[in-house]
Structure formats: C-alpha cells, structure tokens
C-alpha cells in the first residue's frame, strides 16, 4: 500500500485552525474515541528524526543523569562544598540534574499534580472557557503553543500561568478545585529557587549572591502539561526536541516517564524519581556563563499509557528588567575566554525564540559573536 501524499502547508493550516477552534484539546480527541491521530499531529518529513527516533538508545548505556542530594547543605559546610561541586559538574557536562531532599514537601508535589489533573479533566465546556492564544492573558489553556509556526501539533494540552510577581500570585480566575495546589507549590518553590541561585553562583566561582543580584531568577511562568494516552505514539511527540529559552527550569513529573535528554548524540531516558525535581539550565544561563553551563536539548515522547502530567516552572527577569541587556558575566571572562555572545534582553530573546517555534534548531547561535564551529 502506498504512502498518503503529504499535505500542503495551506491544507495543514486549515486543519490546525479547525482543530484549534473546537477548543477541546488533545483530551477532547481522546475522549471522542479516536483510533488514529489526526494528520496535524503527524510530524512532517523535515522532522523525521524526531518522529522515527522515539525510542531511547540507552538500553545498555550506563549513563545516568546526576542525582544530587540537598539534605543538610545549610548546616554542614563540607556537605555544601560537595553539593556545589556536583552541581558544577552536572551543569557543565549535562545541563541537567535531579534534585532530591530539596525541601518541597511530597504533599505539595502531589497536590500540584492532582490540581493539574483536575483542571484538565473538568467538563469540556468548562475547559473551553480558558482556551486562548492571547499572549496578554495570564491564565490560559491551549494545545501546542507554537503549532502555527511548526505546522504540527504536539500530543499535549497545557495550562499556562504567567506571574508578574511570584510573591503576589493572582489566581482568582482559576477554578477553586486546582487553585490551592498551585499556590502552595509556587510558595514552596520560592525557597528552592533562592537556594539554587546561591549554589549555582558558587559553582561558577562567584559570590553566592551574584546571580540573585542580577535579578534573572524570578519565578515567571508555570506550564502545567497534560499528555493523554496516544493511539499512535510512534507518529508524534509530546514535546519535540528543544532547549528552554529561559535562565532556569524546575520540572516536576509524575511516575509515567517519557522525558528524554539529548546527551552525547543519543536520547537518554530520565526515569522519574518519586519526590524529586528536575533542574536544567536554559539558553540564557548558557549565554551569561559564556558556555560554562550548558542548555541541553530535551523532549517528551508520546505513549499509550496516560495521562502523563508534569509542571515546568521557568525563571527569568521580572517585568521591570525585561528590557535590561544581559551578556556574559564579566568575572568569567579573560583573554583566553572572551565573550562568545552579544548582549540581549529577555524580551528580545523570547521574541526570536517564539518567532521561529520549536523547529529542532537552537536559538543561541543567533546571538553568538563568534561563529559556531562546523
């Protein structure tokens, strides 16, 4: 049997728009009982690597994402020094690490996952009231934020929360059933953010308040993802290959799995550890550290089991500093390590990143002073 001809961009755009206007999300498709995924979720030939390489190549590979225990680092100087060194190595070699004993109660972690599930499993008509692509809305729900740029939808729905000030959350428009869990988690995460800011500064050989004084580690966005079970997981992805544009990401994921990191030219599974948080450097942290810390590509594969639930918290400058230019930290530069990137603001970086969508190509090279090696 021959392969069906690939649809034109105009046809795909029409189908994307028709799906978007239903406001039912991926969950609505699954609830309707589909046995095959719509064409808009099938990745085009230009993304064949992402579509056909869904399986991790680390079945017999001993590589494992670093797991760092934060227990006792505030009371024991030696323990803190060891943790700082572990963070340095993890961020230089992996750009990721899993954090355990971080201080956020398990009840708060589970409460957030439960809140996300409850939001996405509300009656369809209730969910539709939150569906929007209006970037000015602080609270909204949608399927694949960049699907019109990439011309392909990805197998997830997202509740997006934007914060001007994480100390004064305005969640009144959220349904009451999920409001408390989200608010408590953000409150608990503030302490972790402060701790990470200090430890990352020390791992760079700087004073512990250096990154904090740069005002680039504000809690600004929480993306609450819901990945329904997929009838044809090999044809699509939950989230395609990308790196995060921000300074730092803290990810909470449930027990289902599916998260993968691109390390040494292969995809490695990151099995969930109960009670852990996954930390990764974003593009702008790589920029200001002049490539000392790495912003590494990652993705989420689709699966037949679900729903998979996760929450990604992004840290970057607040609205008062959104036009402030950031460049490589001067204390990290020398004659043998000159600046590799030009200064840019968070608003300009995000504008460029959003404009091209998740196309499998990193945004950082666009801001390089020195051309990337071929």
TrEMBL record:
Keywords: Iron, Metal-binding, Oxidoreductase, Vitamin C
Gene Ontology BP terms: coumarin biosynthetic process; response to molecule of fungal origin
Organism superkingdom: Eukaryota
UniProt GO MF annotations: 2-oxoglutarate-dependent dioxygenase activity; L-ascorbic acid binding; metal ion binding
The keyword Oxidoreductase appears for this protein: yes
Stretches assigned to the Fe2OG dioxygenase domain: 218-317
InterPro entries given in the database record: DIOX_N, IPNS-like_FE2OG_OXY, IPNS-like_sf, Oxoglu/Fe-dep_dioxygenase_dom
Record family assignment: Belongs to the iron/ascorbate-dependent oxidoreductase family.
Record PANTHER family: 1-AMINOCYCLOPROPANE-1-CARBOXYLATE OXIDASE HOMOLOG 11-RELATED, OXIDOREDUCTASE, 2OG-FE II OXYGENASE FAMILY PROTEIN
Protein name (Swiss-Prot/TrEMBL): OLC1v1039107C1
């Amino acid at each position: 049997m021959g392969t069906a001809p690939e649809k034109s961009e105009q046809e795909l755009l029409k189908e994307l728009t028709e799906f978007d206007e239903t406001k039912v999300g991926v969950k609505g498709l699954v609830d309707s009982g589909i046995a095959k995924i719509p064409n808009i979720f099938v990745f085009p030939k230009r993304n064949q690597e992402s579509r056909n390489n869904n399986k991790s190549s680390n079945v017999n590979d001993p590589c494992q994402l670093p797991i760092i225990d934060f227990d006792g680092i505030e009371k024991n100087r030696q323990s803190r020094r060891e943790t700082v060194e572990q963070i340095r190595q993890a961020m230089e070699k992996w750009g990721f690490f899993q954090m355990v004993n971080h201080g956020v109660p398990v009840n708060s972690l589970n409460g957030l996952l439960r809140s996300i599930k409850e939001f996405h499993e509300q009656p369809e008509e209730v969910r539709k009231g939150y569906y929007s692509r209006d970037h000015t809305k602080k609270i909204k729900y949608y399927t694949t934020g960049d699907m019109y740029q990439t011309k392909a939808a990805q197998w997830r729905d997202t509740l997006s929360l934007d914060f001007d000030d994480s100390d004064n959350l305005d969640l009144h428009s959220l349904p009451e059933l999920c409001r408390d869990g989200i608010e408590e988690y953000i409150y608990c995460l503030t302490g972790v953010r402060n701790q990470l800011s200090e430890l990352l500064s020390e791992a760079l050989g700087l004073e512990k308040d250096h990154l904090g004084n740069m005002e680039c580690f504000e809690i600004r966005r929480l993306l609450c993802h819901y990945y329904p079970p997929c009838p044809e997981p090999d044809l699509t992805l939950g989230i395609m290959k990308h790196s995060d544009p921000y300074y730092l990401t803290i990810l909470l994921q449930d027990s289902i799995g599916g998260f993968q990191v691109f390390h040494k030219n292969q995809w490695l599974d990151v099995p969930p550890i109960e009670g852990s948080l996954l930390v990764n450097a974003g593009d702008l942290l790589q920029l200001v550290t002049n490539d000392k810390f790495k912003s590494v590509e990652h993705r989420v594969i689709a699966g037949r089991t679900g729903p998979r639930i996760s929450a990604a918290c992004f840290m970057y400058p607040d609205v008062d500093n959104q036009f402030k230019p950031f460049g490589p930290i001067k204390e990290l530069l020398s004659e043998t390590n000159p600046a590799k990137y030009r200064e840019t603001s968070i608003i300009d970086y995000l504008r460029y990143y959003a404009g091209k969508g998740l196309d499998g190509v990193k945004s950082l090279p666009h801001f390089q002073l020195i051309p990337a090696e071929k």
